[in-house]
Amino acid sequence: MKRIIVDAYAKINLSLDVLRRREDGYHEVEMIMQQVDLKDIITIKEIEKGIIIESNKKEVPTDSSNLVYKAWDIICKKFNIDRGVYININKNIPIAAGLAGGSSDAAALLKGLNKLWNLGLTKNELMELGVNIGADVPFCIMGGTALAQGIGEKLTRLNNFSNIYILLATPDIQVSTAYVYKNLNLKEISVRPDTHKLIEYMEDNDIDSVAKKMVNVLENVTIKKYPIIQEIKKDMINGGALGSLMSGSGPTVFGIYNNEKLLKETERKLKKRLSKVYSVKTI
């Protein structure tokens, strides 16, 4: 039986700005998205009918609420495929953590089915399918570093910003993205990221300036409800991070380091009170 294995990488937001609320209820955003080497591993095998989803983590849904189900369904309907698939998700990315774990799994499945069933889809065609699954899916297919606009689906590839030391820490709380956006008051945002200046710093590989100028406007809502996020940011800065930010709508916090020894020391300290702490690099 043919088996395809695909890596599904996490993402962080080096900046996140919300420009306006659209008439359809979605928010217009502008953000810099960056993949890191924390990954889920997706194993795909063809079966006769239907879909079976299994995972090493019991928190991972194995029904139609999982985005990989939606990815399989979209491919089958578009190409009139009457074949089933077995999917195993070896889950390492924290769930509902602002790291696009579910979106990355769905992106990996689209890429895997494209190969398994010899569909011949280009990366851009896969990205066009991905936007119907979730706003982060096209970026997870593209990978690397990108400017995301619109609802996150309009992507511009940026210069590679790889091999940067990153510390991730996810507190054991559940953050609802819908709650965060609903409670975001655009008129109250006093500090916004200078996205285009950040891109210039990245192009110059000026890591220090990138780290110090990162802004995520969603912190205004999430930190107010969950002060532990601010505490983790402070711990990272005190531990030698050049800068620290919440990723997405949270609750994951990341720090950028230029010294691996300081990163490892902060990682050791944070692990004393948090179970999900990861030393990673940008890719």
From TrEMBL:
Q: What is its EC number?
A: 2.7.1.148
Stored InterPro entries: GHMP_kinase_C_dom, GHMP_kinase_C_sf, GHMP_kinase_N_dom, IspE, Ribosomal_Su5_D2-typ_SF, Ribsml_uS5_D2-typ_fold_subgr
Where does the GHMP kinase C-terminal domain lie? 198-274
Any one GO MF term held by the record is:
4-(cytidine 5'-diphospho)-2-C-methyl-D-erythritol kinase activity
Q: Which organism is it from?
A: Thermohalobacter berrensis
Every copy of the GHMP kinase N-terminal domain together lies at 66-144
Q: State the encoding gene.
A: ispE
* Protein name per Swiss-Prot or TrEMBL: 4-diphosphocytidyl-2-C-methyl-D-erythritol kinase
GO terms classed as biological process? isopentenyl diphosphate biosynthetic process, methylerythritol 4-phosphate pathway; terpenoid biosynthetic process
